[in-house]
DNA sequence: GCCAGAACTCTGG
DNA sequence: CCAGAGTTCTGGC
């Protein structure tokens, strides 16, 4: 498998976008490029990875727009591998509106788990390979805590604050 | 209420 | 298989 990727500056640090010719396969945030490349490599141990500046530039631009609060919907083509359960969790995550949060437990219940599968949901979120596109940062704990975030807790907090601010800006006076 | 410990589901090694 | 996870529930105080 061939995967091209690029790393650019973003409001939340370095942003890595990786894609096959079919869609986005990996999106991550970090402080240093090497850290992001290592994460990509560990997700795709046997793929041919090629760093190219112009890789997926349309999609990268869309992600940057999103981070700046100019785009609320990231409906981009994905090319990711996942278990059935992960697919269903990610589907639920993508259904959460911009600026809104949902708890791990709520997501578990939405999947039809009467028993508590919140931990499994957390695990599925944690292994989401395309941050932002699948908004795993909108999943929080029931006790009001943020829970964790694969790309750094302060980024999760910053993302949620940015989303709230952008919503305020657009719809603030309307209610 | 608060805290420790058990319960629950999925998955990588 | 089993440990451990981006959790939640329960029971004792």
Present the secondary structure layout.
Blueprint: E1 2-10, E2 13-19, E3 24-30, H1 33-43, E4 48-51, H2 57-67, H3 84-94, E5 102-103, H4 104-110, H5 118-126, E6 139-140, H6 153-171
Parallel strand pairs: 1-4, 5-6
Antiparallel strand pairs: 1-2, 2-3
The chain binds a DNA duplex (13 and 13 nucleotides) through residues 83, 85-86, 103-105, 108, 113, 115-127, 136, 139-143, 146-150, 153, 156.
Give a written overview of the molecule.
- This protein is of the alpha/beta class and 175 residues long.
- Helices cover 39% and strands 18% of the residues.
- The protein has six helices and six strands, in the order βββαβααβααβα.
- A four-stranded mixed beta sheet has the order 3-2-1-4. A two-stranded parallel ribbon has the order 5-6.
- Helix 4 crosses helix 5.
- The model has no long low-confidence stretch (mean pLDDT 96).
- The structure holds a DNA duplex (13 and 13 nucleotides).
Tally of DSSP helical segments: 6
Q: How much helicity do the residues have?
A: 25-40%
Q: Please tell me the overall pLDDT.
A: 96
Output the helix-strand order. Answer: EEEHEHHEHHEH
Question: How big is the Rg?
Answer: 16 Å
Low-confidence residue ranges? none
Main sheet attributes: strand count, strand direction, barrel closure: 4 strands, mixed
Strand content: 15-25%
Please state how the strands of the largest beta sheet are arranged side by side. Answer: 3-2-1-4
Number of strands: 6
